[in-house]
Amino acid sequence: MEQFQAAFKCYKDGMLIAKQQNDQHAYNELAGAKLELGDEDDFCR
Questions:
Q1: d(Cα 37, Cα 19) in Å, to the nearest integer?
Q2: Which of 8, 18, 24, 33 has the highest CB neighbour number within 10 Å of its CB?
Q3: What's the domain count of the chain?
């Protein structure tokens, strides 16, 4: 628990795979979950 760095990496890896497969729904779901953990990197660009 409270392994935020590992969680961010898992979400980011999943987002990369979803993007490569053009799966926007999966990407959005992963990005939303990642954002709930407090990471806004993917939304500030």
A1: 20
A2: 18
A3: 1
